[in-house]
Every structure is written in structure tokens, then in C-alpha cells.
Design brief:
By secondary structure, the protein is mainly α. The chain is 72% helix and 0% strand. The model has no long low-confidence stretch (mean pLDDT 95).
């Protein structure tokens, strides 16, 4: 299979999920509010968090959806490997938290109508 690149697929899905979330402002606000209660203190900035506190919370949602989209295409085990590998280089706390707390974060997204 030419150019079989799970990391590239991960990046593509990640950006597409941002577009999806951009169309759901109220759902994003409600989700971030719930995530703030779960994680009152989050890292900001490279390599652990995103560029702002808001963006770190937003990326908990984006990266969970990225994990689940990858699982649909590659299977759960390979998807978790790709996410763990991404998390060695950037969004370290975000990806680690998504892998550790994926069921809790997924529940938040579903309860706030932000789950794909």
C-alpha cells in the first residue's frame, strides 16, 4: 500500500475534527465547562499542552475524537499506539490524559452533543 502513514492520517483527522467543532460553538463551550471541572488545572504550551488554557481543553475533545476516528480505520490497538506515539512529541499531557481517561472524556462529549 503506497504511503501507508498512520501519523499522517492522524493529523488529517485531527484537523477535520477541528472543522467539525468550529460549527458547534455552544456544544464546545458546554464540553469545555465540563472538562474544566474534571481537570481544574491543565498545562499550557509546548510540549504538554496547547497554546492556551482554552485550547488545551479543546484538544482533550479533539484528541479523543481523533483516537476514536483512528480506531474506526486502524483498529483500537493501532489507534492507541499512534496516539501514544504522537504524545511523545507534542500535546504530551493531552494525549496521555485522553488515553488514560478516554471513557470519561467520551462520556462528556456524548452528553454535550459533541461526539461524532
Amino acid at each position: 500500500m503506497p504511503n501507508n502513514d498512520p501519523a499522517g492520517l492522524s493529523q488529517l483527522l485531527h484537523e477535520q475534527i477541528h472543522w467539525f467543532e468550529d460549527t458547534r460553538q455552544k456544544e464546545v463551550e458546554n464540553t469545555i465547562s465540563a472538562l474544566r471541572k474534571m481537570y481544574p488545572i491543565v498545562p499550557v504550551g509546548y510540549p504538554d499542552g496547547a497554546r492556551s488554557e482554552f485550547s488545551t481543553y479543546l484538544h482533550l475533545a479533539v484528541c479523543l475524537l481523533e483516537l476514536d476516528a483512528l480506531a474506526e480505520v486502524l483498529g483500537k490497538e493501532k489507534a492507541e499506539t499512534v496516539i501514544a506515539t504522537n504524545g511523545q512529541y507534542f500535546y504530551k499531557w493531552i494525549y496521555k490524559t485522553v488515553l488514560k481517561d478516554q471513557a470519561k472524556i467520551r462520556t462528556v462529549l456524548k452528553s454535550n452533543n459533541l461526539y461524532i
